[in-house]
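Z., the sequence and structure:
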Amino acid sequence: MFLMKKIVSRFFFPLPLSLEFLFVGLFLLWFTRRQRAGKALVTCGTLLLVGLSSNFTSNHLLRPLEHHYPPLVVEHLGAGAPSVKYIAVLGGWADVDPDVPITSHISPDLMVRLIEGVRLHREIPGSKLILSGGNDSATGMAKMAEALGMSAEDILPLSEPRDTEEESQQIAPIVGTQQFILVTSASHMPRAMGLFRKRGLQPIAAPTDYLAPRHRTESDDFVPDGYKLFKSQIAFYEYLGQAWEALRGKL
């Protein structure tokens, strides 16, 4: 199920989806008499690719996800801050390559999540950092956390979870019924909070890694490039993930 989910979802990402329209349209134009349908598909594929490669579109897709929960300010926890014992940082892509420095072992978004987790740990004395998301992810973050000055005794790596649902399963026995801080990318936070709450846990959202900050519209927002398409892909991934988990009754 896990592998099938990963493979099938890729066909609905912005670039593959645009190419599917284009390839089918080109096939109809070159090898059939269905010229009108071919032209329509090529036009749709082109507009889809160009539109999703602009900041205007990618930001509008991401902002509803990223601003669902506000950034966490420890002072706002008040008297509840000392009772928080665990800070869970959800995993992501990592590759523990011995030929590169540890700063390159984890992806940029994972690095931002880890730094936010370390920052919160320093503001809440006595807290421990749960680092999850597969062996490379957990190992890479643990090494980086120690390099940032954290004690190994305050780090709890979880190397088995492959996705957010499995992370909630592995973290549940550790935190029990007590409140804990959940750190992940802002766009991923709505789905993560839903999955953890569905399991009966009490996470406190600490979103980070914002990709669509609010700013005035500029002419460059409409110029297509690969990074803007990547942002649209992140939004698609989250909306598809929410739909999948909702169908399974997990949200």
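The mean pLDDT is 93. The radius of gyration is 21 Å.

Let me know what you think.
H.
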